[in-house]
Every structure is written in C-alpha cells, then in structure tokens.
Recover the amino acids of this structure.
C-alpha cells in the first residue's frame, strides 16, 4: 500500500482511464484489468500518482458504463472481481492510489432494482425510484441531455407510471428520500473500499433529491446525505477520498466541500473552457475572471483540474456569448458538437501544436488544484468525430505502430472502437513506443512537467496571487506555501511577448527555473523583465537569499 | 587567442621565470591579501627570479581590478579580461569565478609565450594563503622536475565531501593516481606541461569551462607527466562570492567529471589500480572542530529521492544496483548506511547513463543529489564518534571500493 498521507490527493497527479481502452490481453478487442495491470509500469514512468477508473461495473453500456446494472460486479468484458483485486494489489505495490467511478444518482433500467420496482407497486424496490402519475412535477428542473431527451419523465408501460431521470431515459434516478436507498449506496461503497479501493469519483451528485418549486439541484437534503457518506468514509476508511462531479458554478460547487465534511475534491468545471478561451483570444482575462468568482475552499479540500475528459468539452458553465465563441474557435463542423459541448480531444483542439498543448498542460499543472490527465493526451492522441456520441474521444490507447496500435491482437473488426488511423493523429504517427524513444517527445515533456510539479508542494497546497502586468497576453501568478514561493509566467499568444512583473515584495530572491534548474538574475526593486517565446512558459522557484534548499551544513564550504 | 592588448604586454615583457595567475571576480575583499602573500612568497623563496603576475578578471563590479592596479609591487603585471559564458553571467558558478576556464587559458598562454619555467595558479578569494604556499607549489617543479603540483589542504573531516567522497575516488580509479584535490583552484605547472596544454586541442569544449585543473590533471596523468601533492595548510575562502546551492554545485562538478570520463575512455580503460603520488610538506590531520550538520535532513532528502526519483533511477541504475539502493530505505535513521561498493557502482552507473544520454543530462545529474546526500549522511553517521583516523580510513575505503568496482564500470561502459 502507498503511504497513508491524509492529504495525498492534494499532491497527486491523477490519470483518468477507461479499462476497455487501455490494453487487451485476451484478444477480444476490449481492454481488461489484466491489460491495465501489465501497463502499470508505463503509468509509473509517466509519474502519475492516482488512477481514476471509469465505470467498470456490469452494464448494458448504453452510456459507456454510467448505466450500472450491478454495483457489486465487474463487467465481464473487463475481467472479474478477482482480476480487479489483482490489479489493485499491483497498483498499490507500485505506490499508486486508485479511485473508481460510482454513479450514485441513477442505475440502468436493466438493474434488478428497477426491474423489480416496475413489476409491481407492492415491490420492496418500488420506492427505490421516483414515480409519478403525471409528467408535470418538478418542472423547474432543466433537461441536461438536450440533444436526446425532451423530458425528465418517461412513461413505463409495465409500471404504468412515469419515472424520473435527469439523464438518459434508460437511466432512472434513485429515490434518496428512501432510507433503504441511502443505506444501499453506503453498502456498495463499503464493498469496494473493503477491497482496497482508495476512493470514488461520484457521478452526478447534485441531483440526488427532488423538491417541487426548485431546480432539483444542490438541495440541502443532498448535502445532508453526502455528509453522511463522508462520515462513514472517515470513520471506517481513513485516507480514502470522495471526488464530486458537480458541473456547476464554483460558488455552487463550493457547498459540496461543506466545512471540509463533504467531498475531499470537486472538479472545477468552469475553468476548463476558459483556459481554451484565454489561449484562443490571447488574453488572460477569462482565467483571472473565473478565479475572482471562485470562492476559497476548506484547507483539506482540493479542486480537480482537467483539460479534457471522457465527455464532451462541456460548455454548460459559460455564457451564451462565450459558448458561441468556443464553437467558432474550436468546433469547425457540426460533427464536433454534442449537447452543450465539443467532442474533441486536446491535441486536435490545439491543431496539434506542441507549443499550445504544452502551454495548456503548464496551466493545468500550475493553477490551484490537482491535475487530471485524460488517457492518451500525454502523447497527443487524436479523435474520430465520425463515431457516435462521445466515442470519438474513447478510442483504443495507441501503444505502438503495430496492428491495432499495439492495443490488442484481435481482428481489427472486433475492436470495441476502431483505432485512430488518420495521417496526423493515427497510431503510426502517435504512439507510446515511438515517444518513449524520443526524449523530446510530448510524452517526454509530460514526464518532465509532472516531475517538476511533484518537486514543489506549493503546486498542490499553495495559495495563488495573480500578477497584473500591462501585457494582457501574459498570465503570471505566484503560488505560495510555507516558505516556498513559485512564480509561473505563461505567454498565451503565438508571438513573442515582453513582460514586466512587479515582484518588489520578493526583491532579493533568485528565480530558479524548475525544469532546467537555471538561475535567473535576482529580483530587484524595479520591475522584473522577461521575454517569452510563442506559447512559452516559465516555472520559477523564488529562492530567498540565493538558495531554495534546506541547509545540510555541507554546502557552505568549498568542494 | 590572447587579446591584442595582452599580447602586446607579453611581447614587451619578453621572458619570465615564473608566472603567477589569479582568476578573479568581485574579490576586492580578499585579493589584496592574496597579492601580499604572493609577493612575500616570491621575495622570500625565489628572490631574483623574474616573476610576472597575471590577473584575469571576469567583469568585477567592485574594486578588484583597482586593487591589482594599485598593488605595491615592482613585478610586472598583466591585467586581462576574460569572456564569460552567458549562463555564468546570470549565476556565478560554484568556484566563484565566471569564465574560469577562459581565465586559465589566458594565464597559461601568457606563461607559454613568456617561456616561463613554472606557472602557479591561486584563487583570488582565498583567505588562508601564506607566502609558503608559493614555495610549496613551485619548488617541486623547479627543483625536482615535477610537472603538476596539486594542493593538499588541512580541512575539517566533513568539509569538501563532494571531493573526498565522489570526485577524488572516481578520478583516482579512472586514471590510476590518488589525487585528493583534483578540482582545486591552486596548482603548480611546469613550463613543459604548460606548453603541452597550450598546444593541445580541447580548450573550446565543455571540459575546460570550469577551469583547467581537472582536464589538465587528467592530461598530465595519462600523458606521463610527473605529479606530486603539496601540503599547504588550512583552506579558507570568502564564501560570499561562491555558489552554495548543493544541487547546482554537484551538477556542475559532475558534468565536468563525467564529460571528461566520456571523452577519455581510451586512456582510462586500460588503467588498473591506483597509485599514490609523492607528497611534499608536513602532513596535516583532518580537522575535528565542531560544525553544524543536518544529517537528518540528508537522510530525509535521500528517502524523498527513493520515493520520487525511482522512475529516473530505473533508467540510470542497473537492476541489482537499484535493488540494493532501494533496500537502504528500509532501515531507520539510526541504522542508515551506504556501503562503499554500492556507492561506487551507483556513481559508475551514473557515468554510464551520462555517456549514453539516457536522460537529459541535467536531470540525470540532479537525480544524483539525494544519493550523494545518503552517502554523505552514512559517512558522518559512521565516523562521528571517532577521530580523524576513522574519517580518513572511511575515505580510503571508499577510494579502494571505486578501484575494486572498476570492472563493473568496464562491463557496463558502452
């Protein structure tokens, strides 16, 4: 087991992966836990700390596993519970922590609970779901999947009643007003935590309760139940974490941290599109603005930051004007749009420009929070917008130039999704094997960024103070933690930029560039001048008195 | 390569018996004392010899140059300015003289053109230099036909551990001569060796960036020049002008050492064993005065390396060596150790990794720091209760381990 540091998630670099997409060992065209176990050394070399496993449970897979049909099993395509336990042991031996998705809001309509519930009003499971004789209740609740759903109610001819669902109609919402449901979900968590899992990424948490006359989101009852979950975790499984998926504005998400007694972590959804906007508009405003709207969070809590994930690049948390701009800038064709978002990977969004990709990673790794890397983005994998739903960003991991990108030895026609084959992003051009052999590759750069981030606790724990240089194309900020101060400077534009930074409070300090350990001229009273190449960035440690290391007593004398 | 104004002064001087060279940079506080000691040493021990003082300055912003100009001394002097590489303009290197390699080149070329019988290099930031140093660095050349005189200092047992625990054992095992201060700023060179070095290629490479001493010494050893060591006395420098960040220091030093090793593999590949060189002067024991050391911090840094640098070390260290290193993390602080043979293998693996460029070299060198701290902590912990003899025995055992494990290096060298 890795060491049990209680705030480990604040220092960790997370890596999000679907088991089916990672590595296939039984040649059925679908990745499995045995394959993921084989590839743990790759992830260790990359330097990530915590693996986030996308839904792994038995499911009809109508929503990529977020439609769970059995909370206590492993989808047979991925292996067995025993395979999962072997994977978990191997991961822990290498020092990883592992968290898994858990959908708490709803189940699949194939789940035995729902099948029982619809069969009879007298079923003990009838109360596990939200039923109504009319589809007029809770009209204040918005429809989330606007492209595919017209209502949050769907008529069930077997039950002869409407059932409530905030997502797809095949995903009926659980009824958390029922104490049996609340207990059942706690039992599910205990089952996996007993097997050693280090936490859960809890899907769709704002929607657990419904109340007439409200938006049915972020209700006090929801928070009360989440605090109950947290108490159980703390009392019975110290060191494990809960990560909230709450696609809300920061001031609303803030409530999911409670007083440090709800979630340990929550995603910062509105930041992500604004990073893209800032780079495209070559203006730091969108990023600094969203942080002015980001409230402080309890000391033991942490934001989860990401550039891309398994869903579309969601634009729910932007204004209509901003959304139009994002579509204009990043979604050139109708195929790339989905719901209120853009279904593309990081590299294509950046036109495969290494400088911009690395700049975005610099922002991801240095803004306040724990970075979450989506599998394949570390090598610049592309997408396939011809595939339906969000499948275009869920294609097999590209390990090598071999058949099926080295992902599987199955007949290509049996792969769960085809590998990317286009000339720019195809596996012949973009793969782990080739980039491992080239230290200057994107993969190599990612390893260095991760290593540099892990060397300074201020990245995970520190405060942020934005500097306000006159050049708006430069985003600069100080991260402080304990005695350590970091200075991060990013050029958001595609042309070289000068910048003068007011670092007078740090005068006397020597900036040491973290990736190359190069010492820059010391900070003086006058503005500190830097020039940055296109999309360039600097990570500095401001070493007081010329040294940033703890004295050992052997440095002060000649060698 | 000499600037025209310097060449003109050399031509005007014609010849010299002895050239004294001082590379300098912002040494106004100390250079006066150094010049006094040099003058007194020459007058006392080499009266009548024609001596020339060459000060090569890297762009001092204080009164250093004025002090050289104004020194009360009738010997000819040349005040030169040497070029400083950009990276050393923003961060002074560990030895305190930006562009020290260029300074050494200027000094040696002056000595060569003047036909000097001997050249002595001294550091302008040295506070403990005495007139006797000049005699001890020059006498073995002028009287006994040695070509290179390396200094021996009386130092505290835990000072200079980078040299005593890493550079000296490695250089000794490679080139077969036990030199205890292969990176020192002080040295004596014969006119014959000066001429040889001036005619030799390699001045423009990285090997000479931090000074001639290591490269010149290796040349002297491998090309059969005569070496000796001379006891000088206590070694105290003005620390304010020197870089003291451990990671940067180790990185710079080992960059030079490993680069030299990579370029001279043909010369050291055949060398077996390690012979001491003649020593002149009265032997001085290691100092035992009290110093404040953070051994706990060193061990903590070593353990942090075990935790964070494993992916790096996996690319550098041989599997068995890595396994032995990892096993060191299983002990308590009180039981912390780092066996001599394992340390030698670790250093050899890093040399191989440097040669093969398995990582960016700066990253590779930086990742050696926690291992060095682990090794140094073991040295201090295992000898703290003993005296100078125990510390010297430990250092000697380290040197022998490097010699014994050289077969390991040869087996892995690409």
């Amino acid at each position: 087991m890795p060491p049990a540091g209680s705030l480990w998630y604040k220092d960790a670099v997370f890596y999000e992966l679907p088991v089916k997409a990672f590595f296939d060992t039984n040649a059925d065209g679908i990745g499995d836990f045995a394959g993921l176990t084989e590839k743990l050394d790759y992830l260790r070399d990359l330097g990530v700390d915590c693996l986030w496993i996308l839904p792994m449970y038995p499911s009809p897979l109508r929503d990529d596993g977020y439609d769970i049909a059995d909370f206590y099993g492993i989808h047979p395509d991925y292996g067995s519970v025993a395979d999962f336990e072997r994977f978990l042991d191997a991961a822990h031996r290498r020092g990883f922590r592992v968290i898994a998705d858990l959908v708490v809001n709803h189940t699949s309509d194939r789940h035995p609970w729902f099948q029982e519930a619809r069969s009879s009003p007298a079923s003990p499971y009838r109360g596990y779901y939200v039923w109504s004789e009319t589809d007029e209740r809770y009209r204040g609740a918005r429809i989330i999947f606007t492209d595919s759903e017209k209502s949050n109610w769907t008529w069930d001819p077997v039950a002869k009643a409407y059932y409530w669902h905030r997502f797809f109609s095949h995903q009926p919402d659980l009824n958390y007003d029922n104490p049996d449901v609340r207990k059942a979900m706690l039992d599910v968590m205990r089952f996996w935590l007993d097997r050693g899992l280090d936490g859960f990424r809890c899907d769709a948490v704002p929607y657990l309760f419904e109340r007439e006359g409200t938006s049915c989101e972020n209700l006090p009852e929801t928070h009360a139940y989440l605090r109950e979950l947290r108490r159980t975790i703390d009392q019975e499984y110290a060191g494990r974490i809960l990560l909230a998926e709450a696609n809300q504005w920061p001031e609303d998400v803030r409530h999911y941290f409670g007083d440090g007694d709800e979630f340990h972590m929550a995603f910062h959804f509105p930041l992500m599109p604004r990073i893209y906007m800032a780079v495209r508009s070559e203006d730091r405003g969108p990023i600094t603005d969203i942080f002015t709207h980001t409230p402080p969070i309890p000391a033991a809590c942490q934001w989860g930051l990401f550039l891309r994930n398994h869903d579309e690049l969601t634009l729910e948390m932007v204004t209509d004007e901003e959304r139009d701009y994002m579509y204009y800038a990043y979604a050139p064709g109708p195929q790339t749009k989905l719901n209120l978002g853009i279904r593309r990977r990081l590299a294509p969004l950046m036109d495969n420009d290494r400088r911009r990709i690395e700049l975005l990673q610099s922002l991801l790794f240095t803004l306040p929070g724990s970075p979450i890397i989506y599998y394949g983005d570390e090598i610049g994998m592309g997408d396939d917008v011809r595939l339906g739903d969000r499948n275009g960003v869920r294609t097999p991991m590209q390990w090598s130039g071999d058949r099926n990108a080295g992902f599987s030895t199955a007949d290509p026609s049996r792969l769960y999704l085809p590998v990317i084959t286009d000339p720019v992003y195809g596996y012949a051009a973009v793969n782990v094997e080739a980039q491992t052999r080239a230290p200057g590759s994107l993969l190599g750069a990612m390893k260095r960024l991760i290593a540099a981030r892990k060397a300074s606790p201020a990245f995970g724990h520190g405060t942020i103070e934005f500097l306000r240089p006159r050049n708006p194309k430069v985003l600069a900020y100080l991260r402080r933690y304990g005695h350590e101060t970091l200075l991060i400077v990013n050029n958001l534009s595609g042309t070289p930029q000068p910048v003068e930074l007011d670092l007078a409070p740090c005068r006397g300090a020597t900036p040491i560039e973290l990736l190359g350990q190069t010492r820059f001229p010391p900070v003086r009273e006058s503005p500190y001048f830097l020039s940055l190449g296109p999309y360039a960035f600097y990570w500095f440690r401001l070493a007081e008195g010329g040294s940033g290391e703890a004295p050992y007593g052997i440095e002060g004398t000649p060698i | 390569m000499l600037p025209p104004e310097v060449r003109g002064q050399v031509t005007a001087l014609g010849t010299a018996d002895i050239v004294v060279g001082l590379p300098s940079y912002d040494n106004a506080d100390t250079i006066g004392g150094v010049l006094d000691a040099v003058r007194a040493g020459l007058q006392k021990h080499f009266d009548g010899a024609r001596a020339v003082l060459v000060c090569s300055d890297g762009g001092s912003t204080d009164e250093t140059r004025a002090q050289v100009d104004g020194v009360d001394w009738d010997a000819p002097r040349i005040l030169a300015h040497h070029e400083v590489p950009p990276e050393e303009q923003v961060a002074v290197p560990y030895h305190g003289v930006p562009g020290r390699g260029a300074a050494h080149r200027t000094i040696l070329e002056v000595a060569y053109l003047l036909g000097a019988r001997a050249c002595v290099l001294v550091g302008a930031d040295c506070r403990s230099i005495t007139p006797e140093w000049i005699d001890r660095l020059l006498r073995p050349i002028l009287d006994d036909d040695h070509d290179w005189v390396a200094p021996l200092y009386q130092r505290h047992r835990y000072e200079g551990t980078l040299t005593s625990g890493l550079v000296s054992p490695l250089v000794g095992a490679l080139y077969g001569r036990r030199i205890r201060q292969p990176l020192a700023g002080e040295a004596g060179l014969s006119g014959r060796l000066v001429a040889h070095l001036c005619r030799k290629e390699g001045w423009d490479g990285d090997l000479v960036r931090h000074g001639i001493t290591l490269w010149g010494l290796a040349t002297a050893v491998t090309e059969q020049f005569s070496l000796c060591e001379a006891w000088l006395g206590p070694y105290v420098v003005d620390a304010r002008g020197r870089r003291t960040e451990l990671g940067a220091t180790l990185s710079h030093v080992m960059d030079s050492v490993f680069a030299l090793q990579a370029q001279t593999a043909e010369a050291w590949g055949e060398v077996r064993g390690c012979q001491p060189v003649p020593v002149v002067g009265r032997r001085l024991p290691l100092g035992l005065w009290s110093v404040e050391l953070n051994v706990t911090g060193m061990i903590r840094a070593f353990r942090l390396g075990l935790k964070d640098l494993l992916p790096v070390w996996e690319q550098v260290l041989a599997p068995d060596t890595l396994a032995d290193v990892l096993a060191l993390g299983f002990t308590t602080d009180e039981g912390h150790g780092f066996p001599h043979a394992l340390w030698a293998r670790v250093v050899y693996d890093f040399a191989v990794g440097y040669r093969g460029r398995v990582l960016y070299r700066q990253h590779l060198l930086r990742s050696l720091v926690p291992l060095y701290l682990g090794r140094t902590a073991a040295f201090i912990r295992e000898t703290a209760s003993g005296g100078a003899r125990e510390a010297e025995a430990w250092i000697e055992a380290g040197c022998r381990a490097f010699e014994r494990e050289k077969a390991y290096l040869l087996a892995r060298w690409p």
Remarks:
- Chain B has a mean pLDDT of 90.
- Chain B touches chain A through 48 residues (CB under 8 Å).
